Amino acid sequence: MKLFSHEFYLTAAEVNAQREMPLSRLVTLIIDTATGHANAIGIGFDRMISYGISWVLSRLTIDIKRPLTVNRAYRIDTWIENLNRMFSERNFELVDMETGEPIAWAHSTWMAINMETRRPSDLTMLTEMKDSINGRPYPYIKGGKLLPVIDATVEHTYRFAVSDIDVNRHVTTRRYIDLIVDQWSIEQFDNNRVTRFEIAFKHEARYGELSRTVSAPHEGSPEVFDVMTEVNSTPCAIARIHFTQR
Amino acid sequence: MKLFSHEFYLTAAEVNAQREMPLSRLVTLIIDTATGHANAIGIGFDRMISYGISWVLSRLTIDIKRPLTVNRAYRIDTWIENLNRMFSERNFELVDMETGEPIAWAHSTWMAINMETRRPSDLTMLTEMKDSINGRPYPYIKGGKLLPVIDATVEHTYRFAVSDIDVNRHVTTRRYIDLIVDQWSIEQFDNNRVTRFEIAFKHEARYGELSRTVSAPHEGSPEVFDVMTEVNSTPCAIARIHFTQR
C-alpha cells in the first residue's frame, strides 16, 4: 500500500482561540496517520514489539499554506518516501476536503530502536516496508540541523505530571508541542499564524522531571524563533517556528 | 432520535501510563458525543448561537466499573433523560464492543446561557429536544452538592497558557480534568484506579490567570478526595474523585 489516507472533521471542541487546529493536535493526527499506515502494511507497533523494537519519531517538519479551520472535513495522505538502514522518511499531505486543495505538508524521519540495547535496528530487513516505498518527494525544504538555544529571551519552567505521561512512561509529544506554543502570548497567535514548524526529538523526559523551555529569535529574525525544552541541561526537544502576520 | 451512539477505538497513542484511557480523554469524548446528538436533533452549537445562546456543561458524574483499556473498540450511547426550564439531564453508557458489556456510565447537567445577558435560557422552548426525551434513568447516584475544599493537604499552582484556551477564550475542560488528576503521583494511579468522578463547573477561567488547585481527603476517607481549582479565590471547578485499589 503505497499511499494511506485518513479522513477527519475538525469540531469546535478541538480548536484553539483562533478557531483553528492547535499545532499539538495536528502533530498527534500526523503520528496517528503514520501509525495507521504502518499497521496496514504489517509494520505497526504490535508487530515490531514482537521483535523487541519500537518506532521512534526523530524529526518532523510541517509547512502550512492555509490554517486548518473549524467545522471542515480534512484528509491526511501519507507515504514512505524512502528508507535506509537507520532511517525511514515519511511524508504527509493535508487536503481540505471541501475545496480539494492541499493546504499543508509534513516530512518525518523515523528510527526503529531495539528496546533492550536502545540501538537502532536495520530497517532494510523490513521487506513489507521496502515494497511500500513511494518515491514522491517532499515539496518543501526538509529542514536542517537544529542546534540548542543559547541566548534565550523567554524562559518557562514546568514539572511533568501524570497527565503528561504516555504508555511508555515518557512525556507525550503533545506536551512538548504545547510547551513550545506556550512560550508566546495569545496575542502572538491572534496576530500571526504558524506557517512552518520543525522539531527534533533528542531525549525522552519522564514523570516528575523539571523542564525548562527557552526561546530566542532565530538570527535576529522577528518571525522565526528557536525553541528548546531541556531537563537537567539535556535537550529533550529542539524546534524552530516560523510565524507569518495574518 | 431518542438514542445517539458513537463508536471509537482506543489506540496506544491515546492511553496513559497504565495503558488506560485518561480521565480527560473520557470527558472529552463524552462531551463530543453529546454534541453529536445535539447536532443530529437540530439543537447543536451552530443553531443555538443563531439565537444568541450557548450550551454550558454544569455538572458531570462518571461511574467506571471496569477501566477502558488500550487497543479495544468502544461505543458511547447517549440520551436525554429529561429537561425543565433551567436544566437538561443527559446520560451516557459506555459499552466495550468486544464483549458487549457496559463498563461505564455518565450523567450530565447542561444549561443554555444567553451570551449577552449570561442568564439561562428557557429550555422548554426547544421542541426538538422535548421530542427526543428518553426517560431511561441513570443507574447510579447522580451526585450531590460539591462544596469548596477548606483544609487542603495538597496544593499546586498553574498559570493558564495558550494551549489551555478554547474557541470561546475560556480554559478547556480537558485542562481542568488534567489539573485534578495531576494532584497525585503516578504511583497513585499505578496502585489505584478511578471508579467514580464528579465535577461541577462554577466559573470560567481565562488566558493568563494563575490557578490554584487544592485537594483533601473527603471526610477522612483514604479513597475519596475533594478537589478544587480556583482563580483569585473564586472556585472554577469543584470535584470529587473515588479511587479503588487495583
List keywords for this structure.
homodimer, 246 residues, alpha+beta, ten-stranded antiparallel sheet, 5 helices, 10 strands, 40% strand, globular
Question: Secondary-structure map with pairings?
Answer:
The structure is a homodimer of 246-residue chains.
Chain A (H helix, E strand, L loop, with lengths): L3 E7 L12 H18 L4 H6 L2 E12 L7 E12 L4 E9 L4 E14 L12 H5 L22 E6 L13 H9 L4 H6 E10 L8 E8 L6 E8 L2 E12 L1
Antiparallel strand pairs in A: 1-3, 2-5, 2-7, 3-4, 4-5, 6-8, 7-10, 8-9, 9-10
Helix pairs in contact in A: 1-4
Overview of the molecule:
Two copies of one chain form a homodimer. With 246 residues, chain A is an alpha+beta fold. The first copy, chain A, contains five helices and ten strands. In chain A, strand 8 and strand 9 form a beta hairpin. The mean pLDDT of chain A is 95. Chains A and B meet through helix 1 of A and helix 1 of B.
Q: How many strand units of chain A?
A: 10
How large is the count of helical segments of chain A? 5
Estimated share of beta-strand residues of chain A = 35-45%
User: Which pair of protein chains has the largest interface, and what are the residue counts?
Assistant: A-B, 33 and 33 residues
Fraction of residues in H or I helices of chain A:
10-25%
Structural class by sheet pairing and helices of chain A: alpha+beta
Query: What distance lies between the first and last C-alpha atoms of chain A, to the nearest angstrom?
Result: 39 Å
Name the poorly predicted regions of chain A.
none
How do the helices and strands follow one another from N- to C-terminus of chain A? EHHEEEEHEHHEEEE
Oligomer: homodimer
Which strand order does the major sheet of chain A show? 1-3-4-5-2-7-10-9-8-6
Radius of gyration of chain A: 18 Å
Q: Can you tell me the overall shape of chain A?
A: globular
Q: Roughly what is the average pLDDT of chain A, rounded to an integer? A: 95
Give the biggest sheet of chain A.
Answer: 10 strands, antiparallel
